[in-house]
Structure formats: C-alpha cells, structure tokens
Amino acid sequence: MSIGGTSIEQALASLSDMTSGMVAIGKDEHAQRIAKAQAFMRKQGIAAIYLNAGANLTYFTGTKWYASERMVGAILPASGELEYIAPAFEESTLTGFMVIEGKVNCWEEHESPYQLFVDALARMGIAQDAAAPPRVGICESAAFFIYDGIRPLAPGYALENARAVTAYCRSRKSAAEIALMQRVMDMTLAVHVATASMLHEGITTVEVEEFIQRAHRKVGAPRSYFCIVLFGEATAYPHGVNYVQTLKAGDTVLIDTGCQVMNYISDITRTYVFGAISARQRSVWNSEKAAQAAAFSAAQLGVPCGDVDRAARISLASDGFGPGYKLPGLPHRTGHGIGLDIHEWPYLVGNDTTPLDVGMCFSNEPMICIPGEFGIRHEDHFYMTENGPRWFTQPAHSIDDPFGLQA
Q1: Mean pLDDT throughout 348-371?
Q2: Domain spans of the chain?
Q3: Of 53, 101, 290, 322, which residue is most buried, by most CB within 10 angstroms?
Q4: Which residue intervals define the domain Creatinase N-terminal in the entry (predicted)?
Q5: CA nearest to 25, candidates 384, 339, 359
C-alpha cells in the first residue's frame, strides 16, 4: 500500500539527494534576458525600468538581494548598460553578489535614493521632458514608498508599472529554467510519496509538517519552501486552518508543499484517504481529477488563459458543483504561473486574456471545497511547448493508488 505502513526512518531512508547535475542559470542567459527586455522596451517605447531587489533583480541580473526599507535595485535602460542603485555602505557587498556587472550609484544614509535615481536617469541620457515625458517603469514588486519617493521628483517622466516588461520576459521560461523546475517538481513528488507511506492513526499535522521538512532536506533542498497539511473537515479550507489536527481512519488527507533550489520553486498537492474510502470521497475525488484533465486539455497555444479556467468550471458544473465560484465547488482560480516566485503571471482565471505561449508554466488545481465535509485538490504543473501542454508531474493515478505504486 502507498498510504501508511512504514516508519518515519524507513520513509526517510527511501529518499536520497536528487540535485546532482542541476545547472544554475549562468551569466550568458542573464545577458540574453536583458537583451530581450531591451528589445521589447524599444518596441513598446519604454525608456527605462527600475528592477527592485527580489525576484525581478535576480531574474535579469543574477544578483540576489532581499527587499527592505532601503532602495536597492537596478536601472535597465532600453539601450545601453544596466546600472545599480544602493546604499554606499552596501556597495562592496552588492558587487560581490553581482552576476551581471554594472556601475553602482550610491547614496549615503542621509541622502535621497530617489533623487539619485532621477539624476542617474538623466546622466544615462533619459532626461525629463514635460512636453513628451519618457516612459519609466517601476518594478511592480517595489514597495509603495519607492514610487512615492520618486514621483514628486519626476514630473517630466511618465511613471508606469514595469510589469509589461518583466511579465513578458519572465512568463516565457527557457529550456534551462524548465530543466530546473522539472527537477524541483520531481523532488517534491518524491517527498509526497515518502510522506504518504509514513502516515499512521494518531499522527498530527505538525508531525507530518516536520517530516516533510526533513524529507525535503534529504532530497537536497535547504528546506520546504512552504507546507500545508490538513486532515478531515479541515481539507475544505484551501490554505489551511489555525488548529492542529490528528489523523483518524477515514480522514481525507490534503498535503500541499514545495521547495526551492537554484531559485526555482515546486508546488504540488496530493489528496487521498487514510483508511476506508467512502462513496462520497471517491465521487468527489474523481470529479476533481476530471476537472484537472479538462483544464489541461483546454490549455492550447493561443488560447486565452481564462478559457482554461472556464473548462475546469464546466467540468465541475456537469458533476453538480458551483456554478462559478459557489460552494460546494471551486472558490478560487484554476491555476497560477510559477518560476522564481510561487505565484507569477499570467493566471488561469476568467479575466486573464493572455494567450498561452511557449514556455509558460502553470499550476493546474481546480480544487473542490465542501464546507463541513472535506476538500479535494489535485495540483500538478504543466508547461507550454510548441506541441501544446506537457506535465511536469503526472496527475494522481486514482484514489485507491494515488501515486500509481501498486502492482
């Protein structure tokens, strides 16, 4: 059996480091990303964008830096060399983390980084012009205080969201990114299998979470990136509850977890039953599987993201769930993009008209929530190829054998 029956020690022993051969994104690919962004900016008439510390800075420059109350980031012009902006006392540290080198514009603690940003743009040849303001994008992940600090100093710039550039580039993954994502997905699926094998009556959700942390380290991740473990009625709440549950026979089990290696993130949910399976659990589990399959089938090149969400809801409605977001049924979007961030653009939701394109990666998780009873979520991810969608991990096999391990 794949659910229960082994000890924690045996389950951990079944796992081994899976990171051998993984290749981090190199300097050449970061340079290609910058060139792609600049070509797009020139085509769109965007003069420059500001990339704040965090995933956007890492994506384009390879420089890892965490966002804080101090402005740290990079200025990417539509033409010319990228430059950084940082506190003076951080210059040497920032330089040490750089993959793509560039001039560092430094500000002392009593000075304004926002004035420095505006001055740097002018020096880079992007001058303010009240009659025809150059378009300057501000990183969508930057805290409001950064925009608020720049705005009064930049009446001659047309400030806008840089998402048009960042999302265009980041949503279309390269072969190297796909390879890294495939490995981290494989790692988390192996953790799921091991976790299911060590469940026993009386174990708590906290104990399972602790095991998953250990299991992710065993396969080579620093830790779990996140972990949701739910039993019984608590599985009807998509992102969990504020109390610990104890496993008993007949409980629905929902585990949603992932890890992060070389900046890329996994995110997989498995739902099954510990012990005897009721007719109700079996029926809902199968409806969830059908909705996930319907979404996958609808995900074809050129199709708007919203159509994928609609396909899942049509499937669920045919089994008596919904309609729309009504419960019992699917209360959230069908899926999200994924990559350096666990939730990225575009989204598989009704109002997202983005056409599916090669390299886009999504979760597929049209969860069924039945308040007072249980919830079922199958979550796997797929990526778009020139021939259509392809799974990173194969969907759950059946409620009797969710991992397809039984002979």
Answers
A1: 98
A2: 8-20+172-391, 45-171
A3: 53
A4: 33-170
A5: 339
Residue type at 282 in one-letter notation: R
- For domain 45-171, give the fold: Creatine Amidinohydrolase; Chain A, domain 1 (3.40.350)
177 phi and psi, to 5 degrees?
A: -65, -45
Q: From start to end of 53-120, where are the E strands? A: 73-77, 83-87, 103-107
Q: Which long-range contacts (CB under 8 A, 24 or more apart) does 281-287 make?
A: 281/252, 281/374, 281/376, 281/399, 282/399, 284/368, 284/370, 284/374, 284/376, 285/376, 285/399, 286/399, 287/315, 287/316, 287/319, 287/321, 287/368, 287/376
Torsional sign, CA 397, 401, 402, 407:
negative
Asked if the bond preceding 155 is cis, omega within 30° of 0, the reply is: no
Contacts of 120 (CB under 8 A, 6+ apart): 75, 83, 85, 105
Q: Provide the percentage of residues in the chain whose pLDDT is more than 90.
A: 99
pLDDT at 1 over 50: no
Q: What is the DSSP string of 312-335?
A: HHHHHHHTT--STTPSSB--S-SE
Reduced to 3 states (helix: H, G, I; strand: E, B; else coil), residue 354 is coil
Domain topology for 8-20+172-391 = Creatine Amidinohydrolase (3.90.230)
Tell me, what's the pLDDT at 2? 72
> Is the pLDDT assigned to residue 407 strictly greater than 60?
no
pLDDT tens digits for 228-272?
Answer: 999 999 999 999 999 999 999 999 999 999 999 999 999 999 999
Which structure tokens are listed for 165? 């550039």
Local structure of 337: helix, strand or coil: strand
Phi, psi of 139 (to 5 degrees): -45, 130
Rounded Cα gap, residues 37 and 211, in angstroms:
42
| CB-based contacts of 381, cutoff 8 Å, min separation 6 | 181, 185, 267, 268, 338, 361, 362, 363, 364, 391, 392, 393
By 3-state DSSP, what share of the chain in percent is helix, strand and coil, each rounded to 5? Answer: 35, 20, 45
Given the structure tokens 């004035």, which residue do they identify? 115
Segment 306-313 shows an average pLDDT of: 98
Q: What global pTM score does this model have?
A: 0.96
pLDDT digits (tens, 9 = 90+) for 144-154: 999 999 999 99
What pLDDT is recorded for position 406? 82
CB 364, CB 292: distance < 8 Å = yes
